[in-house]
Write a structure and sequence with these properties.
Helices cover 42% and strands 21% of the residues. The protein contains five helices and three strands, in the order H-E-E-E-H-H-H-H. It has helices at 5-12, 65-78, 83-87, 91-97, 106-126; strands at 25-30, 37-46, 52-62. A hairpin with a 5-residue loop joins strand 2 and strand 3 (52-62). It binds FE2/S2 (inorganic) cluster (FES). FE2/S2 (inorganic) cluster binds next to helix 2.
Length: 130
């Protein structure tokens, strides 16, 4: 199976690459299978309804094409979402949004959603609420 058009698009033109200065939360996830590592940085703000949302999000990924494409996609999916909604994003949501990944590459797609969830948990821990 080949990479979908969407995967190639997000790999060659990834969205939200980089680092956020003084982030509200950082999530780091490593892939034990290949040793690749992903960092996700988030900035949190309140929306008009007073709910906390992901105002800004960036990623840094040392990994394969699938890892980069899924990082890019997860940042796009999470941006502007409430923390609650972002916590519910799954690796399946990410893979589905990319028009699916080759089966041997599914392990790569685990990183993105996990790193996002860790960044949110990091933020909550820092704020002193579980
Ligand atoms: Fe390491 Fe894909 S081969 S994340």
């Amino acid at each position: 199976m080949e990479y979908s058009k969407k995967v190639v698009e997000h790999f060659t033109h990834p969205k939200n690459v980089g680092e956020i200065k003084n982030p509200d939360g950082i999530g780091k996830e490593g892939n034990p299978v290949c040793g690749d590592v992903m960092h996700i940085y988030i900035k949190v703000a309140k929306n008009k309804q007073g709910k906390e949302i992901i105002k800004d999000i960036k990623f840094k990924t040392l990994g394969c094409a699938a890892a980069i494409a899924t990082s890019s996609m997860v940042t796009e999916l999470a941006k502007g979402k409430t923390l609650e909604q972002a916590m519910k994003l799954t690796k399946k949501d990410v893979a589905d949004s990319l028009g699916n990944l080759p089966p041997v590459k599914m392990h790569c797609s685990n990183l993105a959603a996990d790193a996002l969830h860790k960044a949110i948990i990091d933020y909550k821990n820092k704020k002193g609420k579980k």
